[in-house]
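Example is below:
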Amino acid sequence: MPPDHGGCPDPAGYIEAPGQDCPLCPRLVAYRHANRQANPDWFNAPVPSFGPAGAPLLIVGMAPGVKGANRTGRPFTGDYAGMLLYQTLLKFGLAQGHYDARPDDGLSLERVRVVNAVRCVPPANLPQPLETRTCNRYLAAELATPGIRTILALGVLAHAATLRALGLPATRPKFKHGQQIRLPDGRHLTDSYHVSRYNTNTGVLTTPMFESVIQALLPTLEPP
């Protein structure tokens, strides 16, 4: 019998996801326990994916923010990054409802699913390479879901983790904002700078830049 790594089915019923007390990354486990002690009313567990399984667009982020998804239990919810992401998805018809930075705000995703390359919040919001590799099995499970036509990688780490999960070299091709890559399996990989407050405050990523990325990938979501 294989060892229990804390994995559990995704709420969709068949995508492997880490369990609430996943033990795989000691540093992240210790940080999770510290957050549970300091903030017992927060989610403080591996953050599950958000959106319908098998949606044609899979958006891959880096890791939960400590006061964002780690607090609320929904990717990109509760901190600044979610504002640009979800408002853009709403604008282009990929989400319905209203984003109010709460998991009970009524927001629903249409034809898109959001996941993080690393499911647990890391100290200083930065996963270590071993942690990214360890969590890659769960991203690979997401990418194996039938129906995905395009993957949007938010940042260099998400780009590399996506390629690795697909069994491809993690740095070939290199990350480049706005590029669309045709993968060997026929799907598309699109890159964007991460929607973080730092990137938007410094002008690395503007609202028009991110909207342009989303608009450009929309045709790839349609059947050939």
User: Anything to note?
Assistant: The chain is about 30% helix and 15% strand. The chain has a mean pLDDT of 92. Residues 155 and 193 are 5 Å apart (CA to CA).
